[in-house]
Amino acid sequence: MVVEIRIDRVSKWFGGIKALDNVSLEVSRGEVIGLIGPNGSGKTTLLNILRCLLKPDRGWVEISGVRLNGMDPERLADLGVASIYQFPRVIKDLTVAENVALAVLKRQKNLWRAELLAIEYLKDVGLGGKAHMLAAKLNRYEVRLMELARAMAMKPRVLLIDELLSGLSEEEQREIRGLVRSYLDSSGATAIWVEHAIGSLVREVDRLVVLNYGSLIADGEPEKVIRDQRVIEAYLGSYTIA
Ligand SMILES: Nc1ncnc2c1ncn2[C@@H]1O[C@H](COP(=O)(O)OP(=O)(O)O)[C@@H](O)[C@H]1O
Ligand SMILES: [Mg+2]
Question: Of 116, 180, 182, 170, which Cα lies nearest the Cα of 147?
Answer without folding.
Answer: 180
